What we know:
The chain is an all-alpha fold. The chain has one domain. Helix content is 69%, strand content 0%. It is elongated. It starts with a helix and ends with a helix.
Amino acid sequence: MSVALAFEVILQGLKLWNTKEARALYDKVFDLRLEWEKEFNKPVLPAGIKSIKVDHEKYRNNAKLDGIELQLNIIARTYVNQSKQS
């Protein structure tokens, strides 16, 4: 499953899960999606460029994307576990 699809599935599920926690998680997932898209749409740093003078903020940071995806995974697991208990 693509990350973009995962965001959509989780957001739709949280819309259906009508609790205070769901609204807070929905806002967090929405913000994570915006942050992920912003980072993903940055250009990839060309291979072989290792200069410390390069502004790395202008290029995609895969570690940052991994961190966002980890947060999304944790939220998804929390949502699934909480919805099973409801």
